[in-house]
Design goal:
Helices cover 36% and strands 17% of the residues. The protein is α/β, with parallel strands linked by helices. Strands 4-12-11-10-7-5-6 form a seven-stranded mixed β-sheet, with helices on both faces. It has a four-stranded mixed β-sheet with strand order 1-2-3-15. α4 (96-108) packs parallel to α11 (318-331) and α12 (334-354) runs parallel beside α14. The longest helix has 21 residues, at 334-354. Residues 5-9 have low confidence and may be disordered.
Length: 433
């Protein structure tokens, strides 16, 4: 969050001022950043504030609204569902949107995925994946109580998700309460042999139940990327040692890496996959944790205590399911796939020019995800980072730098002109660094 506020007249009626009375925002130190920008509407790739100023949404509002804000097709599908069934308890009941979503989602998930468990958001999706891994071994009479994760990974803000996350800026006050976790570096072709050797030692010293990882792109770690071949070797090694593998595709899922899922790039498929964000196209909150038949069978028993006793009030909300179904349909249309290809090609052209800039240390891309690392030292939430954020907003572009990394993850429907404006704004920002 930067200090930018486009509302020039500080009236008590503007959203920014009314907001201060009662609201507490995420990832915000309010004493340093008291002003929130009031957004009143959105369409396509554009947000509009109270003064009707436009901002190109360069990060699809935290990677959710990939088919564009207020997509007419998705809104109509949810509106139709609203008139039939709005909400019903999902324990003991089921409904058409959830059943249809399971049928359609299974078709595009990796072929080993067979069962879906619904929840409310990305953190709970990963929380459930962790619980599945730990209880899977418990139900089989094996006491494996340690999780494995990548360094600098991020998997959410609930306790299990925080435990396996490696970004201590978020975790400090809670670390003494975490579950046991061992960490390994993200692999490269040069380091994978050593990592496998170290991993062999860890497996002998610790009772590791599961490995949770962000496949190919670590989002909160500033879009750090690793190659699929090295990841595949680690996954294969862990499978041989009966460690459950959990792909956190909350950020990467639904087309962002150029394929439906980042796991589509690797040969060794995960046992469990965590989904949210673009799952419902940014319209409504929902999470899903999918798993193999083998994982599910470890919970299927005459013994009630072997069940997965986890639940949320809005589990499989019919409206959220309707939004997800509409989003899945759009994702698979030729026009949306062409949009993804167009954005990927546009980033590649921009990269050829910008990576030569002396203020750019390195660049990286996977699918529609593009990141450039600045040749400037910068705190993750420091003043220089805030100046960058403010510059982007003043130019009418919403980008959220992660320390010295500027990244783009825009809606697939963004226009070429809007992409060029994002690129131009980044170029202009390099001039004052």
């Amino acid at each position: 969050m930067g200090s930018f506020n486009s509302v020039d007249h500080k009236t008590k009626d503007c959203l920014s001022e009314r907001d201060k009375k009662h609201l507490w925002h995420p990832l915000t130190q309010h004493k340093l950043h008291p002003d929130m920008l009031g957004i009143v509407r959105a369409k396509g790739a554009v947000l509009y504030d109270e003064n009707d100023k436009e901002y190109i949404d360069g990060i699809a509002s935290w990677y959710t609204s990939v088919y564009g804000h207020c997509n007419d097709y998705i809104i109509e599908r949810v509106n139709q569902q609203m008139h039939r069934l709005d909400q019903v308890v999902f324990s003991g009941f089921t409904h058409e949107p959830a059943v249809r979503l399971s049928e359609e989602l299974i078709k595009i998930l990796p072929a080993n995925q067979m069962k879906l468990f619904f929840s409310d958001n990305g953190s709970t999706a990963t929380e459930i994946g962790i619980k599945m891994a730990l209880q899977y071994h418990f139900n089989k009479g094996e006491r494996r109580n340690v999780m494995l994760a990548f360094e600098e990974g991020f998997h959410g803000d609930t306790f299990g998700a925080m435990s396996v996350s490696g970004l201590s800026v978020y975790n400090g006050p809670f670390e003494e309460h975490f579950i046991a976790v061992e960490r390994i570096p993200v692999p490269t072709k040069e380091t994978v042999e050593k990592i496998l050797c170290d991993l062999d030692k860890k497996l002998k010293e610790h009772s590791i139940a599961g490995f949770i990882y962000e496949p190919l792109v670590q989002g909160a770690a500033a879009m750090k990327m690793h190659d699929e071949h090295s990841l595949d070797r680690i996954l294969k090694f862990l499978k041989e040692h009966k460690v459950l593998t959990i792909a956190d595709e909350v950020m990467t899922g639904f087309g962002k890496t150029g394929k439906h899922f980042a796991s589509d790039y690797v040969t060794t498929k995960p046992d469990i996959i965590c989904l949210s964000k673009a799952l419902t196209a940014g319209l409504l909150p929902m999470g899903i944790t999918s798993c193999t038949e083998e994982v599910y069978e470890a919970f299927y028993s005459d013994n009630i205590s072997k069940g997965l006793f986890h639940g949320h009030t809005y589990t499989a909300n019919p409206l959220a399911c309707a939004a997800a179904l509409a989003g899945l349909e759009l994702l698979q249309t030729p026009s949306m796939q062409q949009n993804i290809e167009r954005v990927m090609a546009s980033h590649q052209k921009f990269d050829q020019v910008i990576k030569q800039h002396p203020k750019v240390a390195r660049t990286r891309q996977r699918g529609v995800i593009y990141a450039l690392e600045l040749n400037v030292k910068m705190e993750r939430y420091g003043n220089l980072r805030d100046r960058l954020f403010d510059h982007f907003m003043e130019q009418g572009v919403f980008l959220r730098p992660l320390g010295n990394t500027v990244y783009i993850l825009a809606p697939y429907v963004i226009t070429d002109a809007q992409l060029q404006k994002i690129y131009g704004t980044i170029r202009s920002a390099l001039n004052f660094l």
